[in-house]
Amino acid sequence: MKKILLLSDTHSYMDTQILKFVKQADEVWHAGDIGDLQVTDTIQSLKPLRAVYGNIDAADARLEFPLDNKFTVENVTVWMTHIGGYPGRYNPRVREELQQNAPQLFICGHSHILKVQFDKKLNLLHLNPGAAGNHGFHKVRTMIRFTIDKKEIKDMEVIELATRG
Fold it and tell me: Model's pTM, two decimal places?
């Protein structure tokens, strides 16, 4: 069983609120737009991290993290990418592969809009944690935490952080 903290779009921002939840997780997943690598360095100093780079990330993040991160946790297959769309509106870059070989969990960032949506056609759960940083149009900073236990994704919670400052 693994407790996962999922965040995205930090845009170089890290605070004690985020770190409180990092410390409670077994693993942290960052769905891109990291910004300054101090964000991921801080997380990695506390917990194992899986991440992808996003469209605002510079060469250093692109060297450290992939565009697509595909992995299995417990018995759940995961595909994390920054710009992937959502059920019914997947990005053309990922659409065909999703249709041919869908993971159980498809994670994106980019939109700054929190989404938890099941895709009945592809039989996958789509997650977008919204944005944990201060940059962007979102009003409330958000993250998602959940547990993966064997093949089951459960105990999902939306974490609302302080209003964007």
Answer: 0.96
